Amino acid sequence: MVKTATRKVSRRKLVVAQAYFILALCVIAGLVVGCFIGRLTAPKEVETVTKTVEIPISYSGDSLPENEEITYYDVPLSHSLQSYIYEVCADENVPMSLVIAMIEHESGFNPEVVSSTDDYGLMQINEINHSQLEEKFHSADMLNPYQNVFCGTKIIGSYIEKYEDLSQALMAYNMGEYGAKKAWLAGTTSTSYTESILSLMESYEQEVKENATTSNNE
């Protein structure tokens, strides 16, 4: 009798243990399936690639090699800065002579000038554009000559690409697109501003030709 009871008790424990084991397997299987479904239905992570245009935020000009392919203008701008202007102009398909002419007309080559209408630096970039330029190009100091010419060349380059006409591009740069469009509707296609800069541009291009002729004769 005692032996029979012991066998019954042992068998009962075995059945209970098996039940717990099966329950545990079901719980584990449910967790695995739940994780798998969750990964399938979860929104996929989107990799965001931000392209930053590098410009010298605090660049001194000491490490930029001089470009032997360009003719340096006889103006109060360092060869390092002129090399930088050359590179930016090449990237934007803007004549370097145009940018040099704009700098002379806008600021007289003074990188620290601020006008009464809040225009800053070499290319006299108005304060209204600063926040947009900072957001777009990560440039904030318009009294830094490198940042200034970078942004100024980008702006005039975009207008040249859009209008395919230097006079119209210069009017948009000087008056803003809204003001320029009003002038065009009124029949004005050039101003004293555009004529002055284009005349300076021609002079600088003539200077390059004369220097090239002199070098060839030597």
CATH architecture term of the domain at 79-217: Orthogonal Bundle
Structural class: mainly alpha
CATH topology of the domain at 79-217: Lysozyme
SS summary, helix count: 7
Radius of gyration: 35 Å
The level-1 CATH class of the domain at 79-217: Mainly Alpha
Measured between the Cα atoms of the first and last residue, the distance is 128 Å
How would you describe this protein?
By secondary structure, this protein is mainly α. It has a domain at 79-217: Lysozyme (Orthogonal Bundle), CATH 1.10.530.10. The protein is 64% helix and 2% strand. It contains seven helices and two strands. The chain has helices at residues 2-41, 79-92, 96-107, 130-137, 145-163, 166-185, 192-217; strands spanning 119-120, 125-126. The protein has a two-stranded antiparallel ribbon with strand order 1-2. Helix 5 crosses helix 6 (166-185) and helix 6 packs antiparallel against helix 7. The longest helix is centred in the first third of the chain and has 40 residues, at 2-41.
Q: What labels would you give this structure?
A:
7 helices, mainly alpha, single chain, 218 residues, disordered N terminus
Concise account of the structure shown:
With 218 residues, the chain is mostly helical. It has seven helices and two strands.
Blueprint (SSEs and pairs):
Layout (H helix, E strand, L loop, with lengths): L1 H40 L37 H14 L3 H12 L11 E2 L4 E2 L3 H8 L7 H19 L2 H20 L6 H26 L1
Antiparallel strand pairs: 1-2
Helix pairs in contact: 2-5, 3-7, 5-6, 6-7
